[in-house]
Specification:
By secondary structure, this protein is of the alpha+beta class. It is elongated, with a radius of gyration of 25 Å. The strands form 2 sheets. Strands 1-2-3 form a 3-stranded antiparallel beta sheet, with no helix packed on it. Strands 4-5 form a two-stranded antiparallel sheet. It is built from 12 helices and 5 strands. The two termini are 18 Å apart. β2 and β3 form a beta hairpin. The protein folds into 2 domains: 239 residues, MetI-like fold (Orthogonal Bundle), CATH 1.10.3720.10; 92 residues, no CATH class. α4 packs antiparallel against α5.
């Protein structure tokens, strides 16, 4: 068996990593089919349902009758004249069955196929807000699903740039040594000396406010990669320093192999398992950094949405106490970060030949 086959076989023994990997796959499928899964337009405001708590799915009504099709109750909205807020209570006299593959807002699946089918919904005037609504009546479930597109992909884009910068500069530093090694290592030390969050915040605040969502997304990804590559570069440098003294490297050099061939054929493939592990463990840091920047109002800006931007509405204690469902995006961040860490730990153990 090859090295990759042995690594994969060892990885399959880690059940926690496998379960975490399956959960991550489901999350990425969720953002791929976000238009189909989201019951509402994530930007649609509904003034009649401001700060509405999550609706519960029922199979048994108040009279004790069992329904084969799940349903939600209607909503009765009244004004609390003392606190001047709208109060939403279930209207048990109105039952709205949940239907699947319903018609809704038109969209293009994969930006190619026009359709208006959504996974579930209820007939009007009924509503189904499983995670409640925000301060302007937007469906939290739909916003969480679409927010995952930014929060989950910014980590992948950032880590891709980190791998490119870290592996190339780390390999050059370790293989060539001398002045090249000195310049790269001093640059790394300079970047690592900056406080991470203030540096990210300063660079994010310097972005032009009139930039489009796409430009700002890639700019945030690059900002997160500016510091993230330094750790990988140092680890790859250490690996290359040891590989440079190996017999197979000396044999390749004696056979007349060029530096390019030695690096890309002999060194980087041997370090690839370590690079993959480090990259997997770096993704949670990227996600948390984007969440922190968006939470502070320096990351993704409206009309775009991310999990960090959703948590921005829950900055005050009074809002969290009165509307705790606004903290639900934080649970998604925690789950994804934990899953990436478990998968990274599994890959690290599988790639370590001395692990039991």
């Amino acid at each position: 068996m090859s090295l990759w086959q042995l690594t994969w076989r060892r990885f399959l023994r880690n059940r926690l990593a496998i379960v975490s990997g399956i959960i991550l796959i489901l999350f990425y499928l969720m953002i791929i089919f976000a238009d189909f899964l989201a019951p509402y337009d994530y930007m649609k405001t509904q003034e009649d349902y401001i700060f509405m708590p999550p609706q519960h799915i029922h199979f048994i009504d108040k009279e004790g009758h069992f329904h084969l099709r799940p349903f939600v109750y209607g909503i009765e909205t009244t004004l609390d004249t003392e606190n001047l807020v709208w109060v939403h209570k279930p209207d048990y006299s109105k039952i709205y069955p949940i239907h699947f593959f319903v018609h809704g807002k038109p969209y293009k699946l994969f930006k190619l196929f026009p359709t208006d089918r959504h996974l579930f919904g209820v007939e009007k005037p009924g509503t189904i807000f499983l995670f409640g609504t925000d301060r302007v009546g937007r469906d939290m479930l739909s916003r969480i699903i679409f927010g995952g597109r930014v929060s989950l992909t910014v980590g992948l884009v950032g880590v891709t740039l980190t791998i490119i910068f870290g592996s190339s500069l780390g390999t050059a530093s370790g293989y060539f040594g001398g002045m090249t090694d000195t310049i790269i290592q001093r640059t790394i030390e300079l970047l690592m000396s900056f406080p991470t969050i203030p540096l990210w915040a300063a660079l994010a605040a310097a972005l032009p406010p009139d930039w489009s969502t796409v430009k700002r997304f890639f700019a945030i990804s690059i900002i997160l990669s500016l510091v993230g590559w330094t750790g990988l570069a140092r680890q790859v440098r250490a690996k290359v320093l040891s590989y440079r003294e190996m017999d197979y490297t000396a044999a390749a050099r004696a056979a007349g192999a060029s530096d390019r061939r030695i690096i890309f054929v002999h060194m980087l493939p041997n370090a690839m398992s370590h690079i993959i592990v480090v990259a997997t463990l770096s993704i949670p840091g990227m996600i948390l950094a984007e969440t922190a920047l968006s939470f502070l109002g320096l990351g993704i800006q409206p009309p775009a949405v991310s999990w960090g931007a959703l948590l921005e509405d829950a900055q005050t204690v009074s809002v969290v106490v009165q509307h705790p469902w606004l903290m639900i995006p934080g649970a998604f961040v925690i789950i994804v970060v934990l899953c990436f860490n478990f998968v990274g730990d599994g890959l690290r153990d599988a790639a370590d030949p001395f692990a039991i």
